[in-house]
Amino acid sequence: MTHSQADANQHRLSLAPMMAWTCPHGRYLMRCLAPHLRLYSEMLVDQSIIHGPLDHLLAHHRDEFPLALQLASANPETLATAINAVHVHTDSTAIAEINLNVGCPSSRVQAGGFGACLMKDPVLLAELVDAMHQSAKVPISVKMRLGVDERTGYPLLRALLDMLAQHQCHHVILHARSAWLKGLNPKKNRTIPPLDYEMVHRLKAEMPDMRVILNGGLASAEICEQQLQHVDGVMIGRAAFADPWLMARLEKRLFGTPIPTLAKVVQTMMPYWQTQLNAGARPFELFRGTMHLIHGMPGAKRWRSILTEACHANALDIKGLTTMAHDLMLRAAL
User: Fold this and answer.
1) pLDDT digits over 182-238, tens only?
2) The pTM of the whole model exceeds 0.90
3) Which residue from 127, 144, 317, 333 puts its CA 20 to 30 A from 309's CA?
C-alpha cells in the first residue's frame, strides 16, 4: 500500500527509530509532548517477529497512534511472513506504517545482510520492497543513507530512489550521511560522515512525487524549520531525548499546539509509570527517556539522581522516589 497526500501532515515531524530509546515508554513520553508527532518503533528483525513473543515485541499504548513499525530483513519471504504476523496480531489502528531499515551500519546488522548492506544490492532491495507492498495492509516506507562505502554520489542515490518508485515505494527517510561499514562503529557513523542536506534538497526537487523526510543533525527548532522549506518532513533522533522539550517546541511551531506545562506532563506520566512498574517493567527501561525531562531547568541534576537511584536500587521504594521527583519538578517549574 502506498501513501496518499491526505496523510502528508502526519509526516511533518517524526521521531527516529532508535534501539533502547523508542521503546513504548520513550514513545509514550514523546506523545505527551507532541500530539502530532509520528512515532517509530525500535528496529525489529523479521525472524524476531516470526519466532518471538509478539505481545512483548509489538507492545504499544493506544495513545501512540500513528505508530510506524520498523523492520529489518534480507529475505523477501520471511519479511512478508513477519508483516502478515504483525497484521494478525494487531488491530487495524495499532500500526500505521511499515518501514524497512536500509541504513543501520552495525556489525550485527551487517552479519545478517540487512540494514545499510542493502544499498549495495539493489536487486534484493527491490524484492524486499515488493514483498512489503504485497503483504502490508498499511503504507510502506524505506529509511536509508545517502550512500554506503564506495557507493556514494547523487547518481547512485537517484538510481536507488527511481527503483523504489518503480516498485511502488514513494516514501523515503534519508539520513543525510553515507554509512561506512568498515572502520566506524554505529556511534561514529552518526557523526563522522559529513551531512549533505543539499543532496537531499536536490533529490526532492527532482522527484516531487516522492515523499522525502530528512534525518540527521536536526538538533534545533530553527534548523528543522529551515529544512522544511526543502523537504516534506523532519525526523528527530537523539536530540529528542537529550532535550525532550524540543519536540514540544516543534509541535507548537508546526501545528500550533500549546506547549504543555511540566506539571501536566508529569501528571500524565505518573500513572503510566506506576502501571508499568506494577506490571513488572524494568526501572531503567521505564525511566531512560525521562532523564532529561527537566533539561536546563533548576533541579535537573537532582532529578536525574533520583531516577538513577530508582533504576539501580531494586530494594528502594520506586513509587516514593518518583513521587519525590514529581514534587521536585513542580517546584522547579515555578
Assistant:
1) 888 888 988 889 999 999 999 999 999 999 999 999 999 999 999 999 999 999 999
2) yes
3) 333
For the question of residue 224 being annotated catalytic, the response is no
What pairs with residue 174 in β-bridges?
A: 144, 214
Domains of the chain: 5-255 (3.20.20.70), 262-333 (1.20.120)
